[in-house]
Amino acid sequence: MDEPDIKHGVKWDDEKAVRPSRGLRRAQSSGSMSIRSVRSRREVDPSIALPIQYRTVSYQIEESKQKDATQRSEAKDKATKDLSELEWHTISTEEALRRLSVSMIEGLSTEQFARRIKEHGPNAPSPPDSRTLQKYFGYFFKGFGPILLIGAVLVFVSWKPLGQPPALANLALAIVLVAVFFIQAAFNMFQDWSSSRVMSSIKNMLPEDSIVIRNGVQASFDSQELVPGDIVCIKAGNKLPADMRFLQVSSDAKFDRSILTGESLPLAATVDSTDNNYLETRCIGLQGTHCFSGSCIGLVVATGDRTVFGRIAALTNEPKAKLTTLEKEVLYFVIIICSIMLTMITIVLIVWGTWLRKVHPSWINVPNLIVGCVSVAIAFIPEGLPIALTAGLTITANLMRKHKVLCKSLKTVETLGSVSVICSDKTGTLTENRMTVTECTIGTHTITVEGAEDEIDVSTAPAIAGMITTGVDQVRAIAGLCNAAEFDAATMDLPIEQRRVFGDATDQAVLRFSERFGSVQQLRQSWQKTYELAFNSKNKFMIRTFTIFRKDCLEGTLSETEAENFHAGDTLLTIKGAPDVLIGRCSSFVNNAGDVHPFDDEMRASFEEVKNAYSSQGKRCLLLARKIIRQSKLQHQSGTTQFEDEVTTYAKSSLTLVGLVAIVDPLRPEIREVVSTLRGAGIRVFMVTGDFALTALSIARDAGIVSSPTPFVHNVSSLPREEPVEDAKTPNTRSSILISGPELIGLNEHQWKTLTEYQEIVFARTTPEQKLRIVKEFQTNGVVAMTGDGVNDAPSLKAADVGIALGSGSDIAIEAADMVLLDSFSSVVEAVQYGRVVFDNLKKVICYLLPAGSFAEFWPVMTNVIFGIPQILSSFLMIIICCFTDCAAATVLSYEKPEADVLLRKPRNVKKDRLVDWQLVVHAYGVLGMIETIASFAMAYWYLEKNGIPFRVLWFSFGDLPGWIDQDYYAQKLNEASSIYFVNLVVM
Questions:
Q1: Pairwise CA distance, residues 145 & 327, whole Å
Q2: Looking at the keywords, is Translocase present (predicted)?
């Protein structure tokens, strides 16, 4: 296959064709979020849902690589385990061809294809398991549904054929039970309003035909007929039909993996492996991604459900197996009620079987016994609870919406009230995400931005090149060139600070800094960009390379000596990133006068001291550097993978340190009060950031997250690897610890346990993989909320008990989260308050429903069976109380205002503090229930007494009434007394 090389340079504006600006994407995210991610919907765009699971699996694979073989073999996640064990990317292309018994020239034979299609099946995702039956089964049969249905069936049977003659009252009761059964199911369906499906959209995202080599002939085949071992030809614009190992790639071959990663920057394809992680290496092409440019030949290694795309789609489509805290409480309550109910029914059956059936056989026959048992069940089941529960959660969610908090699931509302740990990102959450460069250090000279402006008279100096190139000139030039941010052309007439900027917040700050000393646009027009490596959480630096358009611009960018020796074919490598990563690569530095000097240990220590000083002031520090690569040293053309590899190699050493810049991101003014309020509510607030440890600690102290003086802040050395022989003292309530991401990797189980006991924690230099690990470790002993707004935050947001996204975040982060804050982080206080209020109000609702809707309904049935008096409250009226009269009043309780101490209490212990505990049961049954029961009995039988039917003739009568009582008159007055009992319960 021919490998075309790109002969022309990549112009500055070509980047716009590659990806839309971040600013535009974020604006769309915020605007469309309430429609796509929060409101009721049945399907979710796979381009939003798939990256969440892809990133999660990728991070888990990274973690598994750090474990030994024994730990890896015990991995619970099958997809993670399988993908981490794949080795197609680590073996040579020759070995891959040998294992699949295929030649790159000839491809598979017809016989080989026939065998493999029979073995592996078609290259298509399995039909989605819609789980329709299981889902609807859950709607009808979770909670009290089964009991209601069984009761309805039994009452139908007692009506016919057991009823002799059939009693219409039994038929009416059965119909009502069936109606309540369906009403409960309807409310369960309503609670499931936020469910989503992804698989139904998958087939539209895969190509229909592919160019395949078989029997030595290149031909087009249906993509569903691909099998492992097929040789596939890919060109620009094609989607990859299966997972494949690249055998040949053109110099400009790039692939867009945004459907899986959520990031649209194309990645260059390679023949050799670039990463141990199967999902991150560039020698593997993944199904569903598309060829952005160039061409390649690939060897199919996986098809159908065995592709990464198929596995991730299947995982994305799986429902959450973990019950929410509210679901656990409701299940616990159902178990309690059912246990009491079965006990009472057993007592009724024993009394009937051992006594009534023999002594009073005419009192309760089999149909009446069945109805009686069902009545006991009806009495104990608060049929209105699901209705009141859903109504209460909906009311609370609507109240939270008014405070700019959107809940994507009703069940999440209560979970937030149980949160004991909040892991908060720094940038944009605790801070305003409005970064500004305040100072810069050039050699041994540190100056403020205003001081730097004094050194360069912008009003008189030329826009691009000054007559004398100072250190400030050179810092300004690298800041403008090695920068992915751009000004909005429509706002260029405004002052610099008021202009709209597209790009990352850090790049925005550096761009504005550069613009203060002259036009960045004119500067960039003097250079032609040939390569860019975007900043990422692994590298922690950004690279851009340029060739020159105009010779005169060198004076404002390089030192005088470098400018004189710079030739037309040379390449300027610019790099910007974390000082701790780049400072070791520098061999020279620029002083304040603009001259280049060797970088000795003394200067290295000086820059380290400056970096630490910036960090201790809560400032983010960036190192700016450059390197000139002579034309004779570059063996490949720009735009090729080989060129990119060369640049990456050259960037590892002999850099010239141009300067350091300090960036301030102001803390949100309300954060200290928010953190203080949350801490008063017993919630530990931790900072999780990618910043330097000293920077993170300084900001955490300003925010109130850390209160201990610096000398008393612990570090990783305070976490013993083994439990001491003596009694280990747990950290006191004010103990603090500062720990970095790399240190987390080496922690063992005991160290993690000790770490989770600290009250104040700052996690610095963390990667998205480590954020996911932090969430899972703290979930072992508490309920964890996680905040985030980026694509890489999605796995930790989804893994947390409550994922909290900001309204300005990416669509993928919003999709992964359970809750969205439209205003600011301060809204989380309202969210926690309402989460606790909803739990308190649910207790009130249950305490209201149980006395009249359970206890007071039970005794009419028991007195009928044991004491032989008429059942003063019919089963029909019991259901009316539960489903109608009580529900309306119970719903009003959901509007109850918060108690005064709602944010002064510790979070609910989900393992001990129950929605229904023994205190509530005693109060509901032993106090309120007893009062309502006695009062209702007294009123009903007092009415019968006043109408000539004394209680003494009913007591132990078992249906044998005196002859002077007319049966029709008795039935009429009994119905009226039943109404009195009913009205009394409703009123009370």
A1: 15
A2: yes
What would the 3-class secondary structure string for 185-230 be?
A: HHHHHHHCCCCCECHHHCHHHCCCEEEEEECCEEEEEEHHHCCCCC
Distance of CA 906 to the CA centre of its chain: 25
- The answer to whether the peptide bond before residue 161 is cis (omega within 30 degrees of 0) is yes
Query: In the chain, what are the domain boundaries?
Result: 40-116+206-314, 461-656
360 SS3 class: coil
SS (H, E, C) 393-413: HHHHHHHHHHCCEEECCHHHH
Residues across the chain:
988
What's the count of helices (H) and strands (E) in the chain, helices before strands?
40, 29
Other Cβ atoms less than 10 A from the Cβ of 358: the count is: 9
DSSP assigned state of 43: B
**Cβ neighbours of residue 15 closer than 8 Å, sequence gap 6 or more:** 484, 529, 532
User: What sign has the CA pseudo-torsion 975, 981, 985, 988?
Assistant: positive
* Spatial separation of the C-alpha atoms in residues 532 and 573, rounded to whole Å: 10
Closest C-alpha to 326, from 833, 953, 850, 836: 836
Q: Which residue has the tokens 């109404």?
A: 979
Section 729-758 average pLDDT: 83
Give the CA diameter of the chain: 128
Distance, CA of 665 to CA of 508 (rounded, Å):
12
Alpha carbon of 61 to those of 65, 316, 373, 544, 780: distances in Å? Answer: 6, 17, 56, 30, 21
Strands 254-256 and 290-293: antiparallel
Query: What residues are annotated to the active site?
Result: 425
Q: What is the DSSP letter of 529?
A: E
Q: What distance in Å separates the CA atoms of residue 628 and residue 559, rounded to the nearest whole number?
A: 12
Least confident of 14-18, 147-151, 473-477, 852-856: 14-18
What is 461-656's CATH superfamily? Answer: Calcium-transporting ATPase, cytoplasmic domain N (3.40.1110.10)
CA–CA gap between residue 520 and residue 605 (Å, rounded):
32
- How many beta carbons lie within 10 A of that of residue 169, not counting itself? 15
Q: Which fold has domain 40-116+206-314?
A: 2.70.150
Strands 620-629 and 655-664: what pairing? antiparallel
The whole-angstrom distance between residue 984's C-alpha and the CA centroid of its chain comes to: 50
Give the CA distances from residue 295 to residues 231, 266, 291, 418, 783, in Å, rounded to whole numbers and listed in that order: 14, 14, 8, 54, 49
Q: Which two tokens stand for residue 289?
A: 């991604």
> Is the confidence at residue 18, as pLDDT, over 50?
no
User: Per-residue pLDDT tens for 48-59?
Assistant: 677 777 778 777
Question: What's the pTM?
Answer: 0.76
**Tokens, residue 571:** 């390449």
**Angle, helices 168-191/145-159, rounded to nearest 10 degrees:** 160
Alpha-carbon gap, residue 302 to 226, rounded angstroms:
9
**Long-range contacts of 785-788, Cβ-Cβ distance < 8 Å, separation of 24 or more:** 785/416, 785/419, 785/421, 785/422, 785/423, 785/828, 786/422, 786/423, 787/422, 787/423, 787/424, 787/425, 787/429, 787/821, 787/825, 787/828, 788/425, 788/429, 788/813, 788/817
Provide the terminal-to-terminal Cα distance of the chain, rounded to the nearest Å. 87
CA–CA separation, 879 vs 852, rounded Å? 11
pLDDT tens-digit readout, 92-138: 999 999 999 999 999 999 999 999 999 999 998 776 566 677 777 87
For residues 428 and 794, is the Cβ–Cβ distance under 8 A? no
